[in-house]
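Quick note —
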Amino acid sequence: SITLDNDLNLAINLAIIANIHHGLGKISEALTVATRALTLLERSAPSDSTNLARLLYNIGAIQLTAGVLS
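Predicted structure written out below.
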């Protein structure tokens, strides 16, 4: 459906923005945007989606930088 396609495209773009924030050291913003992307991807992508896997990996990397994970 069009809504799912739009959600998927928005999620992918938000994931890119989250990576940019992460690269700039804006960890809080990166986590906020990545979490929004995750919500959209969970709704619009299959559970075996490479986009979902990549985003989860990137969220882990952001959390590692933030000191949430060790």
